[in-house]
Amino acid sequence: MEFFQRAKVFRLKTSNQSKYLIADQDEDTVKQTRDSSSTYTRWSFELVEGKTNVIRIRSCNSWKYLAASEEPFLLGMTGKRVAQRPWLGATVEWEPIKEGPYIKLRSHTGTFLRSNKGLPPWRNTITHDLPGHWTASENMILWIVDIVEIDHKSTNGDSKSFKGNAVPSRLSNAVDHKSFSSCSTLSIEDDGPSTNSASSLEHSISFSNLRSMLDGLDDKVYVVTERTTSDTGRVLKSEIHMAKQSLKELTDMDYHGILSLGLYKELEKAISKLSADNKTSRQETLQEQLKTMKNDHNLATQDLVDYATFDSKILEIKAEVDKDVAKACVLEATLDKWFSDEYVNPRANKEELLMELEETESSIKAVEVLRSRIAKKNERLEEMEAKEESWQARQLEAERKLERVEKEWVKIKSLSYTAIFLGLCWSQHSARVSSINGAKSSIVSEYSVQSAFEDVQTLEVKRAKQTFEQLKNAEFCTILSLGQDKKLEKAVDVLIADAKSIGRGKIPSKLVNIQEQLKSMKNDHELASQILVEHSTFSTKRLEIRDELKKDAAKARELQDLEVNVNNTIVDARAKREELLKQLEETENAIKKVEKARSDSMVEVEELISRIEQKSEGLKEMESKEKSWRVRKNEAERLLERVEKDWGKVKNSFSDV
Fold it and tell me: What are 49-59's pLDDT values in tens digits?
């Protein structure tokens, strides 16, 4: 906030381009300009109640506030637009943050006021953005406060002292230094001990003359010739009369005038003569007092002379800085204009060449990629067609195997009636044997258990026979597809187990053959089905590749026809690409030459800026000593006043002499 404490009207200057923040005449846009004399570059500020170190910045023309809007400056970019707005709450509030001799202005969202540079659309624009969202250096968010008008009502006694607007490390404004020079003059007068400016000026001139006269004071020699004649008394009386006359004339003068005219020795001599004539003891006291007054006067005069030299040096340095700043501004503006004329056009041509080259490269690449894809698909299609014969043979073999499986299933169904009948006979025989044995058995309980077991076994056999009866009319592939193969295998296993129990370990060979045939048929059917599925997938894939190849070929013909209409052949496009590359190289060389010339020219600007910075540092050091010099100056003036008062007292004591 210290940059704004004394500012009634100020300008905000960029730290990297010597441009000023300007409120455009449309009362909406905010941008940058080099015209520091424009009234649209002037701003004022207001404190925000209840918030420390927060201000609102207001244009002195439109009286609208500097606002950080939420509108994006460019689509796809992080920077947001800064505009002139009436009162809109927190959007017009900024927090100044000191950064050396510069300030940063932070918005309520944490973004910083940023001055953009470069080619359009960035040139001379103002945005606000978060730290880290820009690739340029951080000095784009550093600003210099140039005070145009000082608010004297808000300044106290200390603020009147010359602090100056710290000369920035880069280019500053000459007008402000002049205003600060006037502030320096005012501070010298205001801090004095109630003396007006006219008397101070007279004292400064008198003190300068006094110093020149004091330099030759010691060279003045008074030669007193002692008369050796007999009229010594008469001569002594004459000398006393002359001493009184001299003392009377000197008492009509102030002490400063006596010293400045080199009459101190005459005063000292007159007092010595009169004191000796009167034989008074005050001679030594008066002479000692006069010497003390002389020493004090010389010290005070020397301090005033040194202060005048110091103040003159400050004014000289400010004048030199003003000249260097003006020269640097003119030189930089000239260089910017020359660089924009010599650099922007080749740069624009380069962008056009790059776009055209990119389009040419894209067209060439598209055709080449399409051709490569067509070639790969042709190779793959040839490989698949080469395998087509073997796949057809496998398909025929699989179909034959399926037919053979169905024929074997028919045979098994015809054989199954014999096997079932055989199993039925074995069951009837087992029942008769069981009944005979049961009749002979005397144990009723054993017969009951065996009868129950045989009933369960008979039920399972009946179910197995029913399964054969249900499946005999279905095809074998249908049985497998419906998942009935497990049921069929279980029925065969039951019949085999039944036959084994009837034959006391002997199994009918027909049932065993049926079981083996069913397993073999199932394996053959699965292998054949897998081969047919793979062949179907292979055929589908081949048809898809053919369709894609037809589409790519049609697109290739379309691109080729288009290419013929534009450049006749792909060779012409490649030749055009080579020509564009050559033009691009020439443009790059031209841009490099312009940049080198600008760099060489900027050396002079950098040297000038370096000199300004050095002088600014020296000026800052002198400004830091200004307060102590004012104290010494005031002390010297008070010392001179005290000497004059002491001189008045001394004149009153001459009556005793």
Answer: 888 899 999 99
